[in-house]
Design goal:
Layout lengths: L24 E7 L6 H13 L9 E5 L12 E7 L1
Antiparallel strand pairs: 1-3, 2-3
């Protein structure tokens, strides 16, 4: 998980020993640049609103697999999750 802005929501960071609590999450995956996820985040928020869910206070953004295991950043898959 990374310390990036999630549209003003606090973000937990794996680099800072954050803990992701168990629970139900709305999740979206994207392939490509880890730092260019704003459109996908908006898509996830739209899904949450359209399904009458209430987003939690935090969002989580994780590289899957770890970016160090890949040859090029275009291979990176990112998971964005928001508790609902």
């Amino acid at each position: 998980m990374d310390s990036i802005a999630c549209q003003g929501r606090p973000v937990h960071s794996e680099q800072h020993n954050s803990h992701k609590p168990a629970g139900t999450y709305a999740v979206i995956y994207l392939k490509g640049d880890y730092y260019e996820a704003d459109q996908d985040f908006q898509t996830l928020l739209k899904y949450i609103r359209e399904n009458n869910l209430t987003p939690g206070a935090y969002c989580y953004k994780e590289a899957v697999p770890d970016e160090m295991a890949l040859e090029h950043e275009t291979q990176l898959v990112t998971r964005i999750s928001i508790p609902v």
